[in-house]
Amino acid sequence: MAGLMKQWTIDALGAQNLKLTERAIPEAGPGDVLVRTTAISLNFRDKLVLENGMGMPIAFPFVPGSDMAGVVEAVGSGVSRFQPGDRVISVFDPTWIDGQKPGTARHPTSYALGGLNPGVASEYVSFPEGWFVHAPESVDDGEASTLPCAGVTAWYALVEKGRPKAGDRVVVQGTGGVSLFGLQIAKAHGAEVIVTSSSRDKLARALELGADHGIDRANEDWVERVLEITADRGADHILELAGGANLGRSLQAVAVQGRISVIGVFEGAEISAPVTPVLLKSPVIQGIGVGHRRALEDLVAAVDRTGLKPVVDARYPFGELSAALAHLDRGAFGKVVIEV
Which end of the chain has fewer CB atoms < 10 Å from its terminal CB, N or C? Predict the structure, then answer.
């Protein structure tokens, strides 16, 4: 397809270096799919990559962003999974199709989009067909764009690894994208969901979304409240989104042989916790590095089957990426989306 497109890039680390550039629309080579981007969803990870590269050897000019929805414009030779007109969403780490995550003990890694692989903050992208899956039919493109990272992270933690059952007590920390997906997914499986937040307004909105209990962690001891709610049994599964020393608090709140999914780093990239509850409670402490392509396909099917509705806090035009990132930094209720 001839013509020019707009694309966000940086030539050096720092969100202040973002600039809207122009380049030729790429072609769909053999095995590739050319997609016209319609929506991009932001993640806290995008902010970290822009600020410090997250330890990755970032190649400049760098295009940020991992999560997008769009429409297939053209396909290259040998493509069998898609055809022009299909609505698609990106795969966060296209090297991880199913099963065990690629990498070794010495070199664990993630070839995520907007990291070691190209980003999606562009009006068009041309990637191998395996880098996409079909979008859900029941949600719009902005909502669909929230699934590849936040959605599949919550799904992978709860369903793929946690295998929730009716009556389980699930604690969701915060009200960001992963948290609200976790709330809805847990409820869909019959769990009793406890949400913690420092915002009373956001807690009220979480209760409207289906949470059974809301804990104001700014004014209450959230561990004690979880123990009260569960009659001292503790939580069967905790989505640990704070990081840092908060892991120790989660260990106090988790049930004997319960599960803690370690996802977030809001309170620090170094986690710490006392060993005694680890030994006495024998919990599963599971690090969650998003999820594989098959899990994303399962989530897409679940969205259409159950009517799960991704929560979008705000939508910004493509030219206002900096404003959208600032909204993300302030703390969103759900997801921040850029419409292209």
Answer: N
